[in-house]
Specification:
Blueprint: H1 4-13, H2 21-29, H3 39-54, H4 62-75, E1 95-97, E2 104-108, H5 111-126, E3 137-144, E4 147-151, E5 156-158, E6 164-166, H6 170-173, E7 177-178, E8 187-193, H7 195-202, H8 210-217, H9 224-231, E9 235-239, E10 246-249, H10 250-255, H11 257-265, E11 272-279, H12 282-288, E12 294-301, E13 305-319, E14 324-336, E15 339-345, H13 349-355, E16 362-368, E17 374-380, E18 397-400, E19 403-406, H14 413-427, H15 435-443, H16 449-452, H17 457-462, H18 467-482, E20 485-486, H19 487-492, H20 501-508, H21 521-525, H22 532-553, E21 559-560, H23 565-568, E22 579-583, H24 591-600, E23 604-606, E24 615-618, H25 624-632, E25 636-639, H26 640-648
The structure holds nicotinamide-adenine-dinucleotide and zinc ion.
Domain BRCT: 570-649
Family: Belongs to the NAD-dependent DNA ligase family. LigA subfamily.
Keywords: DNA damage, DNA repair, DNA replication, Ligase, Magnesium, Manganese, Metal-binding, NAD, Zinc
């Protein structure tokens, strides 16, 4: 679920053609590998993730971002997003030409890739690849994980799109200092926060140092705690020239690579996400030059994956809301990326059975960055440890595909408890009804969410909750009904299989919430995105919750209705049903706004011209070839003015 901060960022940045919030969320949640997605959807997904990340409110971790990026690279290697510096925009700052280009870095994840890069440097020096003997000087520095900036002595700039950045000189006026031993005007560097200071004074209040860096350059007055950090000299602009480094010839570097990388990695008291290697020879640098994305003479070495071989102590079954029983591996406690790991979830019991996971098995545990660790491989299998009964209700288990499922759909405590927990968690507007409370309610005979709403303060007290707590629980329950929530969120809180937030919203765009139970699969199939199987499953599963839904719906929640498609789109316009593509720089509005408006006026808006396109609307600076290609496909090419007249016709 997007946080308020993330929503604000997306709104203020006003991205061109963003995905809907629901689509964004459901794509990030999906466990697919993205290879079946449309490349343009992936591009829009990456752009949104990038905007959030740059604004200090990331929606996903770097590994996932890099993964989606690599999928797009496979599907559409020529996609321009991949070949440019990922843009960064500070709202409320002036955009200015950068004194020098600021680029991203090429990345390597293994020593073998570094060896290849050195070969390319050699080749650039000699013009052929035979000369690998002559020494080549390499500088290695820590790769600071902060906010890239450029200081020309007068102004401080952000990296922007690599050519034009934004003027954030105000950071210096607020007390940002140049790292010790430095002065203003030393060119490219990074705004960073001392790790020891962050851990001691800030970690309690801020999730990561990234949102502090973003705050320092933002227009808004900085938080008091950040100001204290600035005053204490804990936040600095660190010019790369001043970084502690290792310098030497490439042979020594390769001979002792891990050691050198590690010692440089640990050389500063800042967040570091790799080491930077670069050639120092100006002639080589000049010859190699840069792509639009990175300097060819520079590379980042990131070892973002840590692995360990770990013994399994046992496999514990856990029954979920839907009755599926998931395996959790209990592990010999192991340190990985700074945390002690003693449990990791396994995909499903199909994997436990096929790969032989049980007490004594040796598995490979992998952790990328700070993500939840995964068991990637089973190195020494044993007889699998499979449960015969549901750990919660002791009923027998059935196989459904790769999953073991509790056969006791109606009376299994784990299923009921998790269903109730899911309801309050999905509503997301109150506190107090987490696992501990729900378990106690269950023990006192509560089985369904609507029963919770019938409880009085003394009922809670009789169940063993304290007086204050009971009072608070009543307050929270009342609040859950009065605080406004979207009706699609409310619907998805019932945990109907296949009816998550995304499909709930889509469904409600077509049918009001109180008519859902009259629908059959045929009605659902009419809606974009509901295949026959899904439609059948949804109608069937909806009926299972009908009684409970009616009880809870009657409690008068403050539901905000999803806008119906028929209300949103005006089909009675000159462009209704037409296919349009906008290209070039628009004069009378942003392209994103114009596309949105066209959709509301009933048009279908595409990204590229096909033979089904009716109109290509051209703004400023459109290449002649684009126009002649469109004409060749029989598309009508019109100017922005023509388009406006068309709308008025
Ligand atoms: N989690 C997300 O949603 C998300 C979104 C976008 C990008 N990202 C991450 O960001 C990465 C790409 O972003 P990027 O291009 O800003 O970063 P990068 O990792 O390629 O780093 C490039 C930057 O490193 C800096 N740098 C730090 N130390 C340096 C040194 N010693 N010498 C020279 N330069 C140094 C420079 O400012 C340069 O601009 C991706 O790989 C991805 O992991 C994550
Ligand atoms: Zn059970």
């Amino acid at each position: 679920m997007l946080t308020a901060k993330q929503k604000e960022v997306l709104e203020t940045l006003n991205l061109d053609n963003p995905l809907s919030e629901v689509q964004f969320e459901s794509l990030l949640k999906s466990e697919n590998d993205y290879t079946n997605e449309d490349p343009s959807v992936l591009e829009r997904l990456l752009k949104m993730a990038n905007a959030l990340y740059r604004a200090g409110a990331p929606a996903i971790d770097d590994v996932k971002y890099d993964h989606i990026r690599s999928v797009l690279e496979q599907l559409q290697p020529e996609n321009t997003y991949l070949h440019e510096v990922e843009p960064e925009a500070v709202p409320e700052a002036k955009t200015v030409q950068l004194p020098a280009r600021m680029l991203s870095t090429d990345k390597a994840y293994s020593k073998a890739e570094i060896e290849k890069w050195i070969e390319r440097l050699q080749k650039a020096r000699s013009g052929d690849d035979s000369d690998t003997a002559t020494e080549l000087e390499i500088r290695v520095t820590p790769k600071l994980d902060g906010y890239a900036a450029f200081d020309d002595g007068a102004r401080l700039y952000t990296r922007g799109d690599g050519y034009r950045g934004q003027d954030v000189t105000r950071a210096f006026n607020r007390g940002l200092q140049v790292a010790e031993g430095g002065e203003r005007g030393l060119g490219p560097g990074e705004i960073v926060i001392k790790k020891s200071y962050f851990d001691e004074y800030l970690s309690e209040f801020f999730e990561n140092s990234r949102n502090i860096q973003a705050a320092i350059i933002a227009e808004k007055k900085v938080d008091e705690r950040i100001q204290l950090a600035l005053d204490a000299g804990a936040v600095v602009f660190f010019p790369f020239q001043l970084l502690p480094d290792w310098k030497g010839d490439h042979k020594t570097l390769l001979a002792d690579f891990e050691k050198i990388a590690e010692s440089i990695w640990e050389a500063v008291d800042f967040d570091v996400d790799g080491v930077i290697l670069e050639a120092t020879d100006e002639a080589i640098k000049e010859r190699l030059g840069a792509t639009r994305h990175h300097h060819r003479w520079q590379i980042a070495y990131k070892a973002n994956v840590e692995k360990a071989e770990v013994r399994v102590l046992g496999v514990t079954p856990q029954t979920s809301r839907t009755g599926r029983v998931s395996p959790v591996a209990e592990l010999e406690p192991t340190k990985l990326s700074g945390a002690t790991i003693s449990r990791a979830t396994l995909h499903h019991y199909g994997m436990v059975k096929a790969k032989g996971v049980g007490p004594g098995a040796l598995v490979q545990l992998v952790r990328s960055g700070l993500v939840i660790p995964k068991i990637e491989d089973v190195l020494q299998p044993v007889d699998p440890q499979l449960p015969e009964h549901c750990p919660s209700c002791d009923s027998s288990l059935d196989w459904e595909g790769d999953h073991l499922v509790c056969s006791n759909r109606a009376l299994c405590p784990a299923q009921s408890e998790n269903t109730m927990i899911h309801f309050f968690k999905t509503l997301g507007n109150i506190d107090g009804f987490g696992p501990a409370t729900i378990t106690r309610l269950y023990a006192s005979g509560i089985r369904k969410v609507h029963e919770i709403y019938q409880l009085q303060q003394e009922d809670f007290e009789n169940m063993g909750f304290g007086e204050k707590t009971s009072q608070n629980l009543i307050t929270q329950l009342n609040a859950s009904r009065s605080i406004a929530i979207e009706d699609w969120r409310f619907l998805s809180a019932f945990g109907v299989v296949r009816l998550g937030p995304g499909s709930s919203e889509r469904l409600l765009e077509h049918h009001p919430i109180d008519t859902l139970f009259q629908l059959d699969a045929e009605d659902l199939v009419q809606i974009d995105g509901f295949a026959q199987v899904t439609a059948a499953a949804i109608t069937e599963n909806l009926h299972k919750i009908e009684a409970e839904f009616r009880e809870i719906y009657a409690l008068d929640f403050n539901l905000q209705k999803t806008k119906r498609v028929s209300e949103k789109v005006d089909m009675n316009t000159p462009i209704a049903g037409k296919q349009l593509v906008f290209t070039g720089t628009m004069v009378t509005g942003t392209r994103g706004d114009m596309e949105k408006q066209a959709k509301q006026l009933g048009a279908k808006v595409g990204k590229s011209v096909s033979k089904n396109t009716d109109y290509l609307v051209t703004g400023d600076k459109v290449g002649a070839k684009k126009i002649s290609d469109a004409v060749a496909k029989g598309v009508r090419v019109i100017s922005e003015d023509d388009y406006r007249s068309l709308l008025e016709s």
